[in-house]
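Lab notebook, bench 4. The sequencing result for the construct came back, and we need a structural model before the next group meeting so we can plan mutations. Quick request posted to the team channel:

Model the 3D structure of this chain.
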Amino acid sequence: MNAKQELLEVIEDLQVKCATVTFIGKVILLPLNHTIVEYQSFLEVLDEEYDPQAYGGAIEGTIWLTDESWLEREQGRYLSKWQVWEIPPIPPDLWDGSFEVYS
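Done. Here's the predicted structure in token form:
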């Protein structure tokens, strides 16, 4: 499995805001306001084949996306994968501005 391709399949057309990732012993920090060259370097480091069963914790970390969602690496017993998290929408009842308590 290629770590770069795996990540790109998850994020699709979304843009990476910043990231902190550990990949087979390398700590990769992609800062806020990174350049295109830094982003390409980030992907180059991940452009490596690995066996997810042999390296159970080969990839760990958090990647923040510009749409305010983020990815966290989940470590499973035999396979790890990126989990996408999104900020939940605010329910309509909270938009009217009045405080209420229900029993």
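Residues 36-46 form the longest helix (11 residues).
Will bring this to the meeting.
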